[in-house]
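=== Structure Prediction Worksheet ===
Name of assembly: unnamed complex
Input type: mixed (protein and possibly other molecules)
Chain count: two
Listed entries:
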Amino acid sequence: MDKRIEGFSKLTKAEKINWIAQTHFKNPDKAKSILASYWNVNSELQNKHDEFIENTLTNFYMPLGVAPNFKINGAIYTIPMVIEESSVVAAASNAAKFWQSRGGFKAEVLDTLKVGQVHFLFNGDSSLLHSFFEKNKQELIEATNAFSKNMKRRGGGIQSITLNDKSSLIPNYFQLHLHFKTADAMGANFINSCLESIASKLKELARQKHKDLNEGKLEVVMSILSNYVPECLVRASVQCPITEFIPEKGWTGEAFAQKMIQAVEIAHKEPYRAVTHNKGIMNGIDAVVVATGNDFRAIEAGVHAYASKNGSYTSLSNAFIKNDVFHMELVLPLALGTVGGLTKLHPLVQWNMELLGNPDTKTLMKIIAVAGLAQNFAALKSLVTSGIQRGHMKMHLLNILNQMEASQNQKKIAFEYFKNHTVSVKAVGAFLKKNSL
Amino acid sequence: MDKRIEGFSKLTKAEKINWIAQTHFKNPDKAKSILASYWNVNSELQNKHDEFIENTLTNFYMPLGVAPNFKINGAIYTIPMVIEESSVVAAASNAAKFWQSRGGFKAEVLDTLKVGQVHFLFNGDSSLLHSFFEKNKQELIEATNAFSKNMKRRGGGIQSITLNDKSSLIPNYFQLHLHFKTADAMGANFINSCLESIASKLKELARQKHKDLNEGKLEVVMSILSNYVPECLVRASVQCPITEFIPEKGWTGEAFAQKMIQAVEIAHKEPYRAVTHNKGIMNGIDAVVVATGNDFRAIEAGVHAYASKNGSYTSLSNAFIKNDVFHMELVLPLALGTVGGLTKLHPLVQWNMELLGNPDTKTLMKIIAVAGLAQNFAALKSLVTSGIQRGHMKMHLLNILNQMEASQNQKKIAFEYFKNHTVSVKAVGAFLKKNSL
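=== Predicted Assembly ===
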């Protein structure tokens, strides 16, 4: 069957699905009915979701769960989490509960600067380029007026523009490096529009004033925001007296604190561990990032690059004891938005925002950082006490039971039985055969 | 209103929703009906999706789109993509089309080793620990027999175990560092179960044979897989004669190739650019990772850590000209699974897998790497030719129009009008007022 096609994007949704079902599936009717079973019965709502991206066939369900009891800077939040991985919501809820009675989480925004660059080549005298830039800097900034007016009124806009000579890295390579504030927007469209206007003005000025540059040739390579935002930072922290730091029966606060600190120290010194340590943090971060209509690839890239900023990939969180008080904290970059993008388009994003009390972007930064710290705390707590598998295996058991189409009653007795038996696909299969009610 | 709650996880779904609506929403009935409007009408199917995670309230829709015409190692694929960001599916489709007529994509798996570690402290003579380890290595490995038998039959299992002395990093810190192969499973449960068994055997042996260790105390901190997998690698590449490398009218292949190479070189040397360059790659990677039921946080962490492995965060892709042929390639770690986890549980994951011809894990690694390279190529092509905003603004316009509840007819004339006018929320608002059909 020929799987190539011309003009696919111009077909209607039904035509697209027909072609795909006919050419890619053994049972085309079944393939079509599975897609259709995920459509919303309200065609207006479905149409809205179809238009988010191109060539949409149906809605991919991701579970939306919630973790209640998060005390953050004194207020209580129920946090929405969109994630396919089991145990993450449970771990967040447990961490929230643990800290609720120990003063809760604290969080503060350290800065909100975003970055964009115009990358270009210039084959002339760099001192002439510098004076040319100084002379025309204002005009370059004014080239963004059409986009900037609204943003300025909201307290944002271009904060600085500098010319960087990077010709030691690549022959003739220079860049305009800009800082932006984007108020409650993530700001990608705003920043990219500003940069493209500035680049186009830069080319125009270089053409007009080529004598100022002694005829040196200026060539723009590209203009684009950076997802590396080490000056768009938030800190989340918890603390409690060691005497109250008891994870479960059989532990002293002192022993637990020492183990937690050892685990964090290992993540500071050993990249193999740091990557997974931070992955656990991102389980919490991304779940709320997705739930609030933000772009998790942008957040992931910025966070992991920040984790490697000192030349070796390391832990984003820290833990220590000071005056008999256990402290744990997380500092990370989060370039988020609460307006624009999906925020007003996706009804469940709006629902999640209302659940959070319609926070502004700074408040959302704090909530999301706390979700990351909570996840980190919960993962380490499991790792240094019972091991990570105890919690995981319960959900794993449920998944296997569902896969084997166990009845509700079978599930119930299986949960009892496997409290004291090792979970494996084989063992569950054998158990169900014996208990085929 | 008190937003704290005890025993939330034990409530039924309806009780959870009732409590949330009453305590967090101005209009509780509306809040409840929005959640309900996203439930599947088939309660059995809905129940299946509810059980993926804890405290599930409803299904968060992510659009499932497809990008056809991907030629990979000679075969044609239509690639499923789950992503909320507009332009990604369109860019993938364009890149697929471009390369389909230029030999297509090539991809190969370089290795599939995964990593797990037992982190422990030992306060005695390290040479005694080493001889203790060598003497008991076999017994440690055999402690995993209960889990390993099945995996070995499928060609996986423990590949190596070494004792690393890391006491120069942290006093008394040692680790067992293991390599695994996990066949077609991502293997997190398998690896963690093996590690916990080995750790428990290690403690037991150290207790039994404490005289061999001269009474040195051995204390396990934690046992866990690593998401840093620099030996689980795949390479994707494209190539074509420069004379055929024409992106659009007005360009020569030579000029386009030079610009593309400059753009990649900048991403190699400048971390601010590298982060966004790789973020673009991950737009393609994650969309297929999610569509095939894999864990995008694990993939993100592994990939970005790999991008910083040489001490400075850098581009994952490379571009060059050799013998008048343009080459572009991407090498990255992808620890994926095609069995276990969500793969058999989520009906749309199964649908997406069938769309791809039910690939094994190595084939899926290749497909996903190609999706990343395609995205990278498309993003750079836009950046160095028309700029990234031209494509984005069209989708941005659609989003604004939807937000303002424009009719289909208004949308149609707006698309015509804004071909030659700057898109902004204000401009679209004014346009709709004038054209209120």
